[in-house]
Amino acid sequence: xxxxxxxxxxxxxxxxxxxxxxxxxxxxxxxxxxxxxxxxxxxxxxxxxxxxxxxxxxxxxxxxxxxxxxxxxxxxxxxxxxxxxxxxxxxxxxxxxxxxxxxxxxxxxxxxxxxxxxxxxxxxxxxxxxxxxxxxxxxxxxxxxxxxxxxxxxxxxxxxxxxxxxxxxxx
Amino acid sequence: xxxxxxxxxxxxxxxxxxxxxxxxxxxxxxxxxxxxxxxxxxxxxxxxxxxxxxxxxxxxxxxxxxxxxxxxxxxxxxxxxxxxxxxxxxxxxxxxxxxxxxxxxxxxxxxxxxxxxxxxxxxxxxxxxxxxxxxxxxxxxxxxxxxxxxxxxxxxxxxxxxxxxxxxxxxxxxxxxxxxxxxxxxxxxxxxxxxxxxxxxxxxxxxxxxxxxxxxxxxxxxx
Amino acid sequence: xxxxxxxxxxxxxxxxxxxxxxxxxxxxxxxxxxxxxxxxxxxxxxxxxxxxxxxxxxxxxxxxxxxxxxxxxxxxxxxxxxxxxxxxxxxxxxxxxxxxxxxxxxxxxxxxxxxxxxxxxxxxxxxxxxxxxxxxxxxxxxxxxxxxxxxxxxxxxxxxxxxxxxxxxxxxxxxxxxxxxxxxxxxxxxxxxxxxxxxxxxxxxxxxxxxxxxxxxxxxxxxxxxxxxxxxxxxxxxxxxxxxxxxxxxxxxxxxxxxxxxxxxxxxxxxxxxxxxxxxxxxxxxxxxxxxxxxxxxxxxxxxxxxxxxxxxxxxxxxxxxxxxxxxxxxxxxxxxxxxxxxxxxxxxxxxxxxxxxxxxxxxxxxxxxxxxxxxxxxxxxxxxx
Lengths: 171, 223, 386
Known about the structure:
- The structure holds 3 protein chains of 3 kinds.
- Chain A is mostly helical.
- Chain A folds into 2 domains: 2-38; 42-167, Rossmann fold, CATH 3.40.50.
- Chain A has 6 helices and 3 strands; from the N terminus they run αααβαβαβα.
- In chain A, helix 5 (116-120) links the parallel strand 2 and strand 3 (142-144).
- In chain A, helix 2 (8-39) runs antiparallel to helix 6 (151-167) and helix 3 (53-59) packs across helix 6 (151-167).
- The longest helix of chain B is centred in the middle third of the chain and has 14 residues, at 70-83.
- Chain B is α/β, with parallel strands linked by helices.
- Chain B has 8 helices and 7 strands.
- Chain B folds into 2 domains: 2-64, no CATH class; 70-194, Beta Polymerase, domain 2 (2-Layer Sandwich).
- In chain B, 37% of the residues lie in helices and 21% in strands.
- By secondary structure, chain C is an alpha+beta fold.
- The B-C interface holds B 51-52, 55-56, 59-60, 63, 95-96, 98, 120-124, 126, 128-129, 139, 141, 145-146, 151-152, 154, 156, 175-177, 179-181, 188, 202-205, 213-214, 218, 220, 223 and C 60-61, 64, 66, 68-70, 73, 106-109, 231-234, 240, 245, 247, 252-253, 306-309, 315, 317-318, 320, 322, 329, 331, 333, 335, 343-344, 346, 348, 352-353, 355-356, 385.
C-alpha cells in the first residue's frame, strides 16, 4: 500500500490535497498573525506637506501618544515605511514629489489623507497653486476631516485604518 | 429747534460719554413744552445709535488734516534739501513716510538713505498693479536697526514703471536684503530688475506657463 | 621640471590614457529635499567638497498657496481664517498685525479690554510657538527628551487657548475691531498658575538642554553671524537679537497697550548658533513677566470688540503695521481703494527675511552642523511661501 502511495502520480495528488488542507487550516490564523503585525507597527514617512504637520507633531507628543499604536515619527529612510500621512495642502510643485515618494515605498502601503485640504482642497480650493484633493494622484485609504484635525481625530483615523487592515486578505 | 440743534451739536462731539451725560439739564430748560420734552427723550434715545459712524467720521477728518509730525518733517526736509524735486512726497504720517522717485534716480536716493540717514535694511518689497494708470508700483519698505530713534519709522520708497515693459534698476548693491524680495516680485508681477543676478522663478512651480499671478487680469478659479 | 605635456606624450606613445581630475569632480551635489526629516517642506541644494559645504541654494515654494492673491477676493473679515494658516502655531500674531492695519484703514478704535485680551493671547501664542520650535530643535539634534518635554508643556498652554477661543491652533480670535469673545471665568487664576509652573520648568530645560555639554559643543562657535552682516541681511527676531542688536517691535514701536508694560529686550552678543538657541529661552521668561503685568492691569469689565458695519469699507489709502511674532517682525502692507475688499495685501514675514542668512552661514560650514544652523534660523516653510 505504501508503494501505491509513493507512486509518482498518487504522490502528487496526495501532496496537493495535503497542501489544500494546510492552506485552509492555516489561512485564517496566519492571515490574522500577519495583519496583527502590520497593524501595530505602521511607520509613517516623514513628509510634512503643510500646516497640519503641527497637529501630527502634537499627536506624537506625550499627551496624545500615538507611539502606543506603533506609529513612530523618527526613523531612517522611506524604504522601510508603510504609511504615508498626507498632512495638509498639496501644491502643484509638491505633487510630483509626493508621487515619487509614494512609488518608492514597498508594498503593502497605506495612505491617510489628513485635513480638509488633502481631501478636497479645503480652504484653498480657489487658489492657483493647490490641488483639489490628493486622491487624484495617490489612492487614499482613510480620510480624516478637520482643519486641522485634533490629534484625537487623527488617532481615530488610524484606528479605522487598523480595522481596514485587519479585514484584508493575505494572498 | 435751537435746542435740537444744540443737542445735535453736543451729540456730535467725539466723546460719546459726555453727550450721554448731558441730557439731564435739557428737560429742565424746556419744561414748558411737552413736545420738546418728548423730542428730547427721543433725541436721548437716538443718541446711543449714532456712535458707529462717528469714530470713522472723526478719523476721516483727522486723515485729511494736513499737520505732519515734526520729526518726520525733518527727515523729509533732509531728503528734499539733497535731491530737490527728484523726490516727491506722497504722505507724511506719524512713523510712516512715503516718497516717490523716478526709476533713474532710485539707486542714488537709496544710497543716500543708507549712508547718511541710517536706514540700513529693507523690510520688504511690495509690487502693486495699477491697470488703470497702466503702471506697476514697486515700493521698498526701509527700516533702521542701528539708530535708536529711527527704529519705529518705516520709509516707503516707491517707484513706478510701465506695465507693458516693466524694467527697474535693482537695489541689491545698496541693500543686500532685497535679493529674494525682488526675485519674488519678478515672478509674481513680471517686473525685470536690471542688475539682479537671478531674475528667475522662486516660489512658483517649475512648469508655470501662465501670466504672473499678481497681475489684475489673472483671475483665480471661477471668479 | 617634469612637464605634464611630456607625461601625456609619453603615455600616448605607450598607449595609455590619463584621466585628468577636473575640479568639479570633487564636489558632490546634495538635494536636501522636501521629504527629509531635517528640512520639512523646503528644499535646498548644497554642493559638498568632502565635508565642507561650498554652495547653497534655497528652493522654497512647496507650500505656496497664493495667500496674497486670495486676499483680494475676500472682504476684510473673510480674510482672517485663511490668513492665520501660514503660521498655524502662532496664529494670533499674524491676525493681530492684519487687524491693526485694517483698523487704521477703516478707522476703528478698539476698546481697552479688547486690547488687553489681544495682547494676552499674543503672548500665550508666543510661548506656544517657541515651545514647538524648541521641540523640533531638540529632535533635530537627536535629543528626544527635548522633543517630549516642550510638546507636553505646550499642551498646557494650548488648553488655555482652547478655553479662551474654542480651538487648539487655528483660533480666528483677532478680528479688525477687537477680539471675538470675552475671557471665561477663572481664566486669570489659571493663567497665573500656569505661568508659575512654567517658570520652574524653564529652569529644568536649562539644566537638561542648555547646560548639556554635547549641545554646547555642537552649537558654540558654529555659524557666526556678525552684527554688521545681520543688519545688512535684514534678519529679524531671535536671529537678530542673538547677534547683538536689541531690536524688538514691542519696544521700538509699541502697539496697543505695550507702552504701559515694563520689560527688557533680551539679546546676546556671541552671534553663534548657541546664542540663537538661547535667546528664545530668555524671551519666554520675559514673556511670562509681560503676561503677569497684562493680567494685572487688565480692566475688569468693558467691551471687547468695537461694533462694525456689516461690510466695512476701507478708505482709499495705505497702511503698514507690524507686530512682534514668535519668529520676528511680521508686517502687513495693505492698499485699499474704497471697496470692502483690499486692493493689495503684502505680508512681510520673518522667515522670508531670515532665509537670506542660510547661504551666508552654510557656506564654509561642515555638513554635520547643518541642522543646528538651519533650524536656529527659525525658518518655517509654510510661512515663507505664504
